[in-house]
Design goal:
Helix content: 25-40%
CATH class of the largest domain: Alpha Beta
Structural class: alpha/beta
Radius of gyration: 19 Å
CATH architecture of the largest domain: 3-Layer(aba) Sandwich
Bound molecules: N-carbamoyl-L-aspartate
Number of helices: 10
Shape: globular
CATH superfamily of the largest domain: Aspartate/ornithine carbamoyltransferase
Distance between the termini: 15 Å
């Protein structure tokens, strides 16, 4: 049985196959309309979410499956003190696949160990968020027609931003990638990520000012300051408006640079940027549905053939 806890749980060629399926879903959505008929997805969300939960549920519903779950730990037995392991053991009796989001790093790993169904990590604390990364890669691939040879700027809360950590991990497997990290000192990228880049010999630079480097970027990945992971509110208030991407700053960027953001946005991108053709963050949300559909098919071992017929592989073999 396969799970996804980090983007590295899939090889580059497996990810390519998932993106090819996602692109086919975008082009031929009707072909997939019944692909998950009779299958059930459980969403176990111990932390707030709009996009990730609804996008994962939409993915299942678009393929004729059904969904169940909770979006607030207080409405589940967690509030009575049940462990993640016991919850997932129970859910394994009800559903075919589970998507879990939890404020603690490593929670998805605990779930995976106790689970009898595939587990999708939808965010574990400040650690990883692989389905957002699949979304990000699919968006970059669709907009730039490649995933290699580019300079990616990541700006904002690089310390607590789990989407940042997953994206760097995933992109560092493609040739010709250079990272530019833009953050205040307090929100610098964690050492374990830097160590990984050093070990692999992947070039990166660190800056504080976005204006100084925006002109060199092919992708600008903006992020929100992660209020919920701060130890004190004063630090958050001091740092929350450190970056605000405006039309004026966008004038310095290349014409073919794209701005991505996992969303939700707070203040870090001014709404005046939304109408810039290079603002890709709402298109990104749409790609997130296609890629989650492709991921669910892969984890359930379901292959949709060219004529629309379905083959179930099972046994953990990805039908890619
Ligand atoms: C992100 C998350 O939850 O980590 N949101 C999302 O899933 N699209 C980013 C964030 O909350 O800032």
């Amino acid at each position: 049985m396969r799970h996804i806890l980090t983007p590295l749980d899939f090889s580059v060629s497996e990810l390519d196959a998932i993106f090819d399926i996602a692109a086919d879903i975008e082009a031929n959505p009707k072909k997939y309309a019944d692909a998950c008929h009779g299958k059930k997805l459980a969403t176990l969300f111990y932390e707030p979410s709009t996009r990730t939960r609804l996008s994962t549920e939409t993915a299942m519903l678009n393929m004729g499956g059904s969904v169940m779950g909770f979006s607030d730990a207080n409405s589940s037995s967690v509030s009575k003190g049940e462990s993640i392991a016991d919850t997932i053991r129970t859910v394994s009796c009800f559903a075919d696949i589970a998507a879990i989001r939890h404020p603690k790093e490593g929670a998805a790993m605990v779930a995976k160990q106790a689970s009898r169904i595939p587990v999708i990590n939808c965010g574990d604390g400040g650690h990883q968020h692989p389905t957002q990364t699949l979304t990000d890669l699919m968006t970059i691939r669709s907009l730039k027609k490649r995933l290699n040879n580019m300079t990616i700027g990541l700006c904002g809360d690089l310390k607590f931003g789990r989407t940042v950590h997953s994206l760097i991990e995933a992109m560092s497997r493609y040739p010709g990638i250079r990272f530019i990290f833009i953050s205040p000192n307090e929100l610098r990228i964690p050492d374990y990520v830097i160590d990984m880049l050093d070990e692999k010999g992947i070039p990166y630079e660190e800056y504080i000012r976005l204006d100084d480097v925006i002109g060199r970027l092919d992708i600008l990945y903006m992020t929100r300051v992660q209020r919920e992971r701060f130890f004190n509110e004063e630090d958050y208030i001091r740092l929350k408006d450190f970056y605000i991407l405006t039309r004026k700053i966008m004038r310095r960027a290349k014409n073919d640079m794209f701005v991505l953001h996992p969303l939700p946005r707070v203040n870090e991108i001014s709404v005046e940027v939304d109408s810039d053709p290079r603002a890709a963050y709402f298109r990104q949300v749409q790609y997130g549905v296609y890629v989650r559909m492709a991921l669910i098919l892969a984890l359930l071992g379901i292959k949709v053939n060219d004529d629309g017929s379905i083959t179930e592989e099972g046994g953990g073999k990805l039908p890619l």
